[in-house]
Amino acid sequence: MDFFTVPTVTFGLLWLFVVLHHERRRLLHFGVTDHLGASWITQQLREAFPFGPAPRYAILDRDGKYGHAVPVALQTMGVKAVRTAPRSPWQNPYVERFGGTLHRELLDKVIVFNPTQLHRLVREFVTYYHEDRCHLGLEKDTPEPRAVTPRPTACARVAAQPTNRVDFVNAVHAVFSSLVLVPAVSESRALMR
User: Fold this and answer.
1) Confidence at 152, pLDDT banded by 50, 70, 90
2) Is the terminal CB of the chain with fewer CB neighbours within 10 Å at N or C?
């Protein structure tokens, strides 16, 4: 888990809190606030694991925002808090990578007005991140496993049909829901004979 700051159009600062599962790089929970405190973080942790079992470990940096309440809350949930070394973001690489991806692919392209808008944008981005965005560390799969499409013949060309989703993330990224394999012109002429 980690925090990312997002500036607003009025030069305010919003805090984005994310909890990421390391195995499939799946975002388990996120929250947005403009008033950050240990009680809010504790509540976000409760919302991240409401009914199911909590993970055995949580990797935290040494940020003062956690205070003493967050490690105690993690301990009461049965989670061991593992602290990274000071100024060592590489010790929590998946969350740091997600933050960089979120900034490069979404937040650098928009101006955020308020927490509600940021929450909506991040929710749409998470859907894209889980279902459409390939990850090299997952062997070019998405965090939500998907069926592998068979390789087309060498002479086929691909005609893509865009999804019906109308959202900001789809407007920024070319997301396609289905691929139609169309035989190449020479192959279709050969089939007509």
Assistant:
1) low
2) C
Q: Which amino acid is at 169?
A: V
Query: pLDDT digits over 87-134, tens only?
Result: 888 888 889 999 999 999 999 999 999 999 999 999 999 988 888 777
Side chain identity, residue 47: E
- CATH: 2.30.180.10, 3.40.50.2300, 3.30.420.10, 3.40.50.300. Which one for 2-138? 3.30.420.10
Using CA atoms, how far residue 174 sits from 45, 80, 146, 161, in Å, is 33, 40, 18, 10
Kindly list the domain boundaries of the chain, sorted by start residue: 2-138, 156-192
Beta-carbon-side half-sphere exposure of residue 186 (alpha carbons within 13 Å): 3
pTM of model > 0.85:
no
Q: Give the distance, in angstroms, between the CA of residue 66 and the centroid of all CA atoms in the same chain.
A: 22
Ranking 56-60, 165-169, 174-178 by mean pLDDT, the lowest is: 174-178
Nearest to 61 by CA among 42, 81, 44: 81
